[in-house]
Hints:
Distance between the termini: 51 Å
Mean pLDDT: 93
Number of strands: 17
Low-confidence stretches: 1-19
Amino acid sequence: MNFRRLLNSLACSILCVTPLSAQDRPNVLMIVVDDLKPTLGCYGDQTAQTPHLDALAARGIRFTRAYANQAVCGPSRCSTFTGLRPDRTKVHDLKTDFLEVSPWVKSLPELFKDDAYFTAGTGKLFHGGKSDSIMESRAFDKIVHEGHLPYHPDHPKPVLGYQSPKAQQARAELPANQQDKWGKLKQALKQSGAGVSTEALDLPDDAYPDGAIAKQGIEFMNQAKQSGKPFFISLGFKRPHLPFTAPKKYWDLYERDQLPVASLQDLPEGAPKFAGQSWGELRNYADIPAKGDLSPEKAKEIVHGYYASTSYVDAQIGKVLTELKKRGLEKNTIVVLWSDHGWHLGDHGLWCKHSNYEQATRSVLMFAGPDIATNQESSALTELIDVFATTCELAKVEAPKNLDSKSLVKTLKDPSSQHRVYAQSQYPRWNGTMGYAFRSDTHRYVAWVKNPDPKNAPSSLPELVAEELYHLESDPAETTNLAASKDQPEITKALDTFRTAADQFLKSQAERIEAQPK
């Protein structure tokens, strides 16, 4: 080979590894919805009115068995945005400063920003404690916080999601330098009695945060076009999280007396009492009793508020997706929509999340876009951490090593393919135990282990405090803990299988923790 041919060959090799141009690289629109369980038409809920999310599902694939890695927003979001389970992020609560305990971690949007994507975000995204502002600045070229959203010009900014005159008055009575302080506003709402669980006022969508988040998401598309780069836009919608403040027209979609009310009002028979929770999150609101059950009327109101808030957020997501299509971006944009966990709506006598049960851990997960099957559903067991590796592979962005995340790309092309043997969740309890839950095709198993320091995963399963086992095919409501009937051979066999799986899982996690930066 002469010198000229050698140069030509080298030039060809360089061209072959040149990164994809902006026009060839897919955009990513990542939509995160707070506290949304699968109360959607596309998931089979015949009550829910969610036409826009149903339309998204029709042009993509929805996962019917996707599970949060911990059923509370902070740990779940930290795990999903990093591809690491909670024992590896060391975030199990809402107080831990994420980057203080895991400074080496890189979030998904930060990874895309480093790979020459235009990144933008608004709404509730990381929830990593004091680290949020640092994580946002590292991850996003453009970030817009709630106080600076484009709210409706004819209405005041909401007060922690409220627009009632009483809430506005509570803020006005604070000193000027405290009127934007979350803690001071929360205290003022509580003291004034304005911090109630629901609000149904006849107001425009963008008088509330989610309507303004949708408007800001559309503006991000303008900014992305100006950048000349492919975009990674993250929108964190706040409803149906409490308080259920949504415009009255969404409440009017439902007849309260016709809404479903949970028939099961007790913990599963034979379950340890600490497996439940006292729904303290809901009790923080002024119209909820500090102790005891909700009245039947208040329970129906909460269910009504949840459905109304779900329809409200569905409409806001619809505005963003409509604009995406109008701009001709739909065919080259990967849309990833996930909720950070499920929600108890009175089942088991529980409200909110904070448990290892199906209603708290089962989440919404959808993908749509290029090379993704359309109008399909998959029953493959998956975890929310799998969003990380999947999004990276779809966009051809190199993912970090040593993740817990496992790409779903094969399943996106063939919805009948299987993904995981178990979907794993966990939740700590005040009695020094950690519950590790394993959802198989047929069962849910929870190993409650002694774990004095929930920031460190035990290396094996030596000290079982309690066990739960539910056969979800014959008992989908999880009414009876079969682990209390150990004398039956088939139950003994199932428990042995799950104990082995739990032991192997914890040993594997301990090895991964040992291998990660300190």
